[in-house]
Specification:
Layout: E1 25-26, H1 36-40, H2 71-84, E2 93-98, H3 99-111, E3 124-128, H4 135-141, E4 148-153, E5 162-167, E6 186-191, E7 210-214, H5 215-218, E8 226-231, H6 234-248, H7 253-271, H8 281-303, E9 306-307, E10 313-316, E11 321-324, E12 329-334, H9 342-347, E13 351-352, E14 354-355, E15 365-369, H10 374-386
This protein binds 4'-deoxy-4'-aminopyridoxal-5'-phosphate.
């Protein structure tokens, strides 16, 4: 239910409406509009022009497992991971999806036993440690597939055939996570949407079997709807590709070209000597996130009724410095005895957040987006600090 403002005829939409000091502030979704300011400053670096005759074919690279992947996007994805050092790319297939959400569904399809196979009688159990990203149960069960089924918190799961979703840093609480289950027939899918230097120290080059990423959180281009998967096994990569073929016959080439250009602008700013420092995305993102987290911690302390997760830090191999974790969401707890439902308490003060109950957790917690525009974020922090 995102509220979209009405654009002038022919003009592009701008997302959520502008806010005033007494507006309702909607921080329920993780809409990454904070990054607009950065991209406004980069001039034409991330601009593309697509002539009317281009990107008309369904096909991009017929020799590739992922036949609808634009080679330019494949190239820029690998280049950026090599620059940042957050994930291994050699020996991996790159798959593109309409957001990483589509690739998540593709992974469930690819990893579940095939209908008709010996193991194919019961649906595959899909689990994740609570608090888990609220879309995992929602997306897993909305079509009531016979192939897979949401089975809740990984910590209380009994059985050895499962798909474990490992989100690190975790949505909603920012925790650095590893798989909690292990068995011969269990499989982990690593959702690394937030494993970028603006949010956390890059402490190791991740090399899991299936890793999901998205421009939504890395560069802030959620509206472009481009995600990618790094997949080791060729058969799994083929089956994931098959899902996307059946679901949407590929992924918008126009969006892929834009995503490739955006990723290229990010890498260029670090790798080309003539580039300005102001155009370095991760430096900008880290600075903003550090500033926002310090504002939030001050506001929570001023109010006296909210608590936040402890700050953690690590040595970042990308920046070669110690870095604190600045999660893209605040996992905020209301400590007031009489408030059992923090989301409705905040709603009463015109702050919209997502209840802990949607993440398999206590409703005394809420998840608050840290990636909105400055005006909304400033009003939120100010309002929060005044609550008693
Ligand atoms: N994984 C996680 C952990 C997320 O937080 C999100 C976005 N909220 C996604 C995946 C989905 O991202 P996309 O926009 O690429 O579908």
């Amino acid at each position: 239910e995102p509220q979209l403002s009405m654009p002038k005829a022919g003009a592009p939409s701008t997302g959520k409406p502008a806010v005033t000091p007494d507006s309702v502030i909607n921080l329920d979704h993780g809409d990454p509009t904070m990054f607009e300011e950065f991209w406004r400053g980069t001039g034409s670096a991330a601009e593309i022009v697509i002539p009317g005759w281009q990107t008309m074919s369904y096909f991009s690279d017929v020799g590739n497992v992922c036949w609808f992947l634009e080679p330019g996007l494949d190239h820029e994805v690998r280049r950026l991971h090599r620059l940042v050092g957050n994930a291994a790319v050699d020996g991996y297939h790159v798959l593109v999806g309409t957001g990483s959400t589509q690739l998540f569904m593709a992974a469930l399809y690819a990893l579940s036993p095939r209908a008709g196979s010996a193991a194919g009688a019961a649906p595959m159990s899909v689990v994740s440690t609570a608090p888990y990203y609220s879309s995992y149960p929602a997306v897993t069960d909305f079509l009531q597939s016979g192939l897979f089924r949401w089975a809740g918190d990984a910590n209380t799961f009994k059985g050895d055939t499962y798909i474990e979703l490992v989100c690190s840093p975790n949505n909603p609480d920012g925790a650095i996570r590893e798989a909690v289950l292990s068995s011969e027939s269990g499989i982990a899918v690593h959702d690394l949407a937030y494993y970028w230097p603006q949010y956390t120290a890059i402490t190791k080059r991740a090399d899991h079997d299936i890793m999901l990423f998205t421009v939504s959180k890395s560069t802030g281009h959620a509206g472009t709807r481009i995600g990618w998967a790094l997949v080791k096994d060729r058969d799994v990569a083929k089956r994931m590709t098959k899902f996307i073929e059946l679901n949407t016959i590929g992924v918008s080439k126009d969006s892929q070209l834009r995503a490739a250009k955006v990723l290229r602008a990010v890498s260029d700013a670090y790798e080309l000597p003539e580039m300005k420092e102001a155009h370095r995305l991760f430096d900008y993102g880290r600075r903003k996130m550090v500033e926002r987290w310090s504002m939030l911690r001050e506001a929570a302390a001023a109010s006296g009724i909210f608590s936040l997760p402890e700050e953690t830090s690590g040595f970042c191999n990308f920046t070669k410095e110690m870095a604190v974790t600045n999660p893209a969401f605040a996992w905020l707890r209301c400590d007031r005895e009489d408030v059992e439902d923090c989301a409705s308490f905040l709603r009463g003060h015109k702050i919209l957040t997502r209840s802990g109950s949607q993440f398999g957790a206590d409703p005394r917690y809420v998840r608050v987006s840290m990636l909105d525009r400055d005006d909304a974020y400033d009003i939120f922090v100010k309002r929060l600090s005044s609550l008693q």
